Amino acid sequence: MTWRRAARVALVLALPLVLGACSGSGAPSVGVTIGDGSTGSGGGTFALSLQLLIALTILAIVPSILLMATSFTRIVVVLSLVRSAIGIPQLPPNPVLLGLSMFLTLFVMAPVLTAINVTAIQPYMAGTISSEEALKVGAQPMRLFMLSQTREADLQLFLDLSHKPRPDTAEEIPMEVLLPAFTTSELKTAFTMGFLLFVPFLVIDLVVASALMAMGMVMVSPTQIALPFKLLLFVLVDGWVLIVSSLVRSFGL
User: What's 121's DSSP letter?
Assistant: First the structure.
């Protein structure tokens, strides 16, 4: 695979949302030609230095795309709230929490990634569609996923903030409106789930604190006494399985 083809495949994987937003807003196309335009002479359309620059730029914005356009935000926030509710801020450690969030994100996004691969990447690799068509087609599964998880009120909010009229169809919603609306919806859903997870642990804290007050043990920290009971409850109900299954099912899987 040549550098130019590798760079374009990376664009198909990482930039369908960004370029979809540009194409949806009617931005003019920009072409860059370096050298004599002959790929055989080594001075083709994209020089090696420009290809490396594109690859580094894509690597720099991939984390933002991951946070903004996938299920990662909801998953990592809920898992962080569970850790705080249990009362052990250091356990599970951050690498474990981020790793679990990443694997759950890949599991949830597997149908979307499969659709992108089948409809955009494989036809582009086979040479049946151009890179522009691959980017446009590859953005559609991501758009459908985000629309299915975004509240209408959040979409309307960002449409009002952008001073744009309400679109007639979902396909007309600009990406610069859909992305922040999706993220806001994900945060609201994550905090709602976190509140429900906090309630049983809060009840244990209140019961332990009341028992210590009744026995006159005011100098004993209720947190230290309640922690074993919270861990016991979490293990007895198989807490991690319940949380993971609830997170996955919350995306409609």
Answer: I
